[in-house]
Write a structure and sequence with these properties.
binds glutamine; five-stranded parallel beta sheet; alpha/beta; binds adenosine-5'-triphosphate; binds xanthosine-5'-monophosphate; binds magnesium ion; GMP Synthetase, Chain A, domain 3; 3 domains
Length: 511
């Protein structure tokens, strides 16, 4: 199938580049993220209908700042520059960029020229999300200012005739009130695109691509029973059928009864080759004495791969490992341009001498998009609506050393949290809700006696993609029930506290 209309996003290493792609997909337009180093000829050969330049951490006026081929502005293809991309467009076309007098982070009041096609239909005063230290201080020829904030005189500029536009703010983030309208105006009014691309075309295309890539080989799939790996497995199974072998690893870091329950559920639902391997001891011994969060993640990532390596040898010709990696796992693990936040076990935690080629069909998607793909594939809600559970499991919810005893305490507390959240009918409205076992002992009085026991932290957040999150405003009576039941049922615990930090500045997990 030829994709007639395509938007290319040139990546300058912004934290939000994938979010731009996602917003464009939400407009039912196909898009691809490509390296900013491609030449104008290469880009022209890809036949884009529009181009977007992403944000990025560098400053355009420094020596090694990433550039793009200036001739792309003369291809006759509409271009939208965002933040770094806006600044680069200004500089390459003869304008000037310098460090701003006042930096802007977060919400800003934006005044737009709504006679410009980019802002058509938008109120003159609106709000936009900013994150910059540099600003455009003089415009290239042919451009005029089409939006400003109190601290940023050139919050947007445009050259109507050549369809070149640049915005200093981030239209792709949720907090820019009219962000989607602006993106739509760029795609539909300025670039004249049609909204004719859908998620099922993505599914179809991915199945074809996988079939071609795998060829005569076999693949194993690391399946956890979580949303991502289950969707990935079903997708790959559609492509290669019985040549796919799914392996569920009981790494000893799972929740109460999880391995058995998941195995049963998966086998009931799907006619795939699924096997459970018991590796509690392997993982626990790899974690012995390890207390540093990054070391834990890497130890777990390595152990997973060793297990998969060994399991793969049980089949004839396994060349591929299928993982349900999502985009937030990739971006937080860092890449050539973005910063490392934490090494997700399945990305940054992988050993260098791994023998598999990876198949990660969901690598560019966000969780809610994966749920949509899962729906297309007919996967039941019981699986699709599960809260995310990280591959390193309870190990990154136990601060300090991971031991059988501490796992056992956390497991019992966590079970109560999930049970009560479900009973209160809150499960589907939360991104995650779980217990953490920090390394804190405190004094209490129980049954007229002094205690000096463990603390449990309750963490519950709302989020749409896991990239940003807010702590959930759980009803007091639910908090109260959870607290009392943990203390009553888990005798090692004498205190329960609630984590009221959003992401950022905290992350969702504690390690
Ligand atoms: N216990 C496990 N056994 C086998 N593979 C696993 C296990 N835990 C994680 N993985 C692999 O690591 C990947 C990343 O884990 P992650 O928790 O992000 O995804 P998931 O478990 O599939 O979905 P969810 O985010 O809903 O929990 C999984 O998609 C899967 O391929
Ligand atoms: O498979 C995974 N492997 C990991 O190493 C990992 N670390 C965090 N998470 C999950 O990702 C989301 C964002 O988490 P953080 O805010 O803690 O980074 C949350 O939903 C986390 O549960 C992981 N998932
Ligand atoms: N978010 C961005 O793209 C930032 C661009 C540039 N580094 C600045 O700080 O102004
Ligand atoms: Mg998981």
């Amino acid at each position: 199938m030829m994709k007639a209309e395509k938007v290319l996003i040139l990546n300058f290493g912004g934290q939000y580049t994938q979010l731009i792609a996602r917003r464009i997909r939400e407009c039912n337009v196909y898009c691809e993220i490509i390296s900013s180093k491609k030449s104008a000829e290469e880009i022209k050969a890809m036949n884009p209908s529009a181009i977007v330049l992403s944000g990025g951490p560098a400053s355009v006026y420094t020596k090694d700042a990433p550039q793009c081929d200036k001739r792309i502005f003369a291809l006759g293809v509409p271009v939208l520059g965002i933040c770094y991309g806006a600044q680069l467009m200004a500089q390459l076309l003869g304008g000037k960029v310098s460090m701003a007098q006042v930096r802007e982070y977060g919400r800003a009041e934006l005044t737009v020229d709504n006679t410009s096609p980019l802002f058509r239909g938008i109120d003159r005063v609106t709000s936009a999300w900013m994150s910059h230290t540099d600003s455009i201080t003089s415009l290239p020829d042919g451009f005029k200012v089409i939006a400003s904030t109190p601290n940023c005189p050139v919050a947007a500029m445009g050259d109507i005739e050549n369809k070149l536009y640049a915005v200093q703010f981030h239209p792709e983030v949720e907090h820019t009130a009219k962000g989607m309208d602006i993106i739509r105006n760029f795609l539909f009014i300025i670039s004249g695109l049609h909204a004719d691309w859908t998620m099922d075309s993505l599914v179809e295309q991915t199945i074809k691509d996988i079939r071609k890539e795998v060829g005569d080989s076999d693949a194993i799939c690391a399946i956890s029973g979580g949303v991502d790996s289950t969707v990935a497995a079903v997708l790959v199974h559609r492509a290669i059928g019985d040549k796919l072998h799914c392996i569920l690893v009981d790494n000893g870091l799972l929740r109460l009864n999880e391995a058995e329950d998941v195995e049963k559920l998966l086998k009931e639902e799907f006619e795939m080759d699924i096997r459970r391997v018991d590796e509690q001891e392997t993982f626990l011994s790899a974690l012995k004495g390890v207390t540093d969060p990054e070391e834990k993640r890497k130890a777990i990532g390595n152990t997973f791969i060793r297990v998969f390596d060994r399991e793969a040898k049980k089949y004839d010709k396994v060349e591929f490992l299928v993982q349900g990696t999502l985009y937030p796992d990739v971006i937080e693990s860092g890449d050539e341009m973005a910063s490392t936040i934490k090494s997700h076990h399945n990305v940054g935690g992988l050993p260098e001498d791994m023998n598999f080629k990876l198949i990660e069909p969901l690598r560019y998607l966000f969780k809610d998009e994966v749920r949509q793909v899962g729906k297309e594939l007919g996967i039941p809600d019981e699986i699709l609506m599960r809260h995310p559970f990280p591959g390193p499991g309870l190990a990154i919810r136990i601060l300090g050393e991971v031991t059988e005893e501490r796992l056992d305490i956390l497991r019992r507390a966590d079970y109560i949290v999930t049970r009560e959240i479900k009973k209160a009918g809150l499960y589907n409205s939360l991104w995650q809700a779980f217990a953490v076992l920090p390394d804190i002992h405190s004094v209490g009085v129980m049954g007229d006696d002094r205690t000096y026991s463990e603390t449990i932290v309750l963490r519950a957040v709302t989020s749409s993609d896991g990239m940003t999150a807010d702590w959930a405003r759980l009803p007091y009576d639910v908090l109260d029930r959870i607290s009392r039941q943990i203390i009553n049922e888990v005798y090692e615990v004498n205190r329960v506290v609630y984590d009221i930090t959003s992401k950022p500045p905290a992350t969702i997990e504690w390690e």
